[in-house]
Design brief:
The structure holds 2 protein chains of 2 kinds. Chain A is α/β, with parallel strands linked by helices. Chain A has helices at residues 2-10, 16-29, 32-44, 46-54, 56-62, 96-99, 104-107, 109-114, 119-125, 162-166, 171-175, and strands at 72-77, 82-87, 135-140, 145-150. Chain A has 2 domains: 1-30, no CATH class; 31-179, Nitrile hydratase alpha /Thiocyanate hydrolase gamma (Nitrile Hydratase, Chain A, Alpha-Beta Complex). Chain B has 8 helices and 6 strands, in the order ααααααβββαβαββ. Classes of the chains: A alpha/beta, B alpha+beta. The interface between A and B is large, with 74 and 90 residues.
């Protein structure tokens, strides 16, 4: 790895300063807190929720989250009838602009192979058990559409600010592999 | 291609193992792998579809035993070799020995925030109208191309319903091989799990893929 970097820098193909900007962007600027703010706003602001349903790319861009691996966004909403789960069986497509870089498990063979054929078994490994009647809807990201799951707002959060609500929104809940924290479970 | 990357429905990989408090990177070299892959891609000599095809073209045993950043770096070496930016001798020696091909551009630190914030939208204009509309029943064609495709094996020959039309997008099967963007209508197609997996499927599960019109025929 070091050798490859050395070769590319020596040939003037990559600028070491650009590498540092890339790393800093994903370490400090782009991560699941972005998505949590989007979800919290959708919970708190019905007009924003409507825009997010109609054109997620534009609604998310309102909040300043755009760009690589988030060029074409869809927000998919959990409700009593349907739980959404996002996967990329063919590689590792993931909505970077709102969730940052994907965790290792998302890119792993066990998740990519089983999310589509055994979604409830996969969810159980995350500690999530759904009513048998609830449809599990799996979104396989086979093109450049990127999916953000909007989980159901936890009960007991009436009147909460967006900032407080965002603290309940875990990364896994925005992939569909988890549920938001309950108000009593706040760290 | 029917490579190791096409994992949907494969068995035997064991349980998913989410890691508590997972770090963003598991070793310093992973940061370099991410940054090098993005910076080299920004030279503009290949596109994301060619990159994906380089990754899935790894030998299946190699693909399955590599971490994701290892897969990225192995594919990056393939792309750099293919496009004349490095030689095999340089890679084994670990040092630059001959001048590289001239890239269309070199990503500078100043350009980087804008490049990342713009990304690479794949929507394109296309004359005419999409053939299908939401609610239409469609069947995925059966293909087994040697080249790149984004039609997973588990969906080939299966019947589903058009759920959304996303306009025209770059067609990876063409774009990955330097044959042009060939924009094609893109749809979300939803399948009942039983249609995909048979009688033992979860009765309350629905799987969708995003599929180009090229992959679909009326059902």
């Amino acid at each position: 790895m070091k050798a490859l970097e050395t070769i590319l820098v020596a040939k003037g193909l990559v600028d070491p300063a650009a590498l540092e900007v890339i790393i800093d962007t994903y370490e400090t600027k782009i991560g699941p807190r972005n998505g949590a703010r989007v979800v919290a706003r959708a919970w708190a602001d019905p007009a924003f929720e409507a825009r997010l349903r109609a054109d997620a790319t534009a609604a998310i861009a309102e909040m300043g989250y755009t760009g690589r691996q988030g060029e074409h966004m869809m927000a998919v909403f959990n409700d009593e009838a349907t739980h959404n789960l996002v996967v990329c069986t063919l590689c590792s497509c993931y909505p970077w602009s709102v969730l940052g870089l994907p965790p290792v498990w998302y890119k792993s063979a066990p998740y990519r192979s089983r999310a589509v054929i055994d979604p409830r078994g996969v969810l159980a490994e995350f500690g999530v058990t759904l009513p048998a009647s609830r449809t599990v809807r799996i979104w396989d990201s086979t093109a450049e559409m990127r999916y953000l799951v909007v989980p159901m707002r936890p009960a007991g959060t009436e009147g909460w600010s967006e900032e407080l609500l965002a603290d309940l929104v875990t990364r896994d809940s925005m992939i569909g592999a988890g549920l938001p924290l309950e108000p009593g479970a706040m760290p | 291609m029917n490579g190791a990357q096409d994992m949907g429905g494969q068995m035997g990989f064991g349980p998913v193992a989410p890691e508590k408090n997972e770090p963003l990177f598991h070793a310093p070299w992973e940061k370099r792998a991410l940054a090098l892959t993005l910076a080299a891609g920004a030279m503009g000599r290949w596109n994301i579809d060619e990159s994906r095809h380089a990754r899935e073209s790894l030998h299946p045993a190699d693909y399955l035993s590599s971490s994701y950043y290892e897969i990225w770096i192995k594919a990056l070496e393939t792309l750099l070799l293919r496009h004349g930016f490095v030689t095999a001798e340089e890679l084994s020696a670990g040092e630059a020995r001959v001048p590289a091909a001239a890239p269309p551009r070199v990503l500078s630190a100043e350009m980087t925030p804008g490049v990342l914030a713009r990304g690479g939208p794949t929507n394109r204009t296309k004359a005419g109208e999409p053939r299908f509309k939401p609610g239409d029943a469609v069947r995925c064609i059966v293909i087994n191309p040697r080249g790149h495709t984004r039609l997973p094996r588990y969906a080939r020959g299966k019947t589903g319903v058009i759920e959304a039309v996303h306009g025209a997008h770059v067609f990876p099967d063409s774009n990955a091989h330097g044959s042009g963007e060939a924009p094609d209508w893109l749809y979300t197609v939803a399948f009942e799990a039983r249609e995909l997996w048979g009688r033992d499927a979860d009765p309350a599960s629905v799987v969708s893929i995003d599929a180009w019109e090229n992959y679909l025929e009326p059902a």
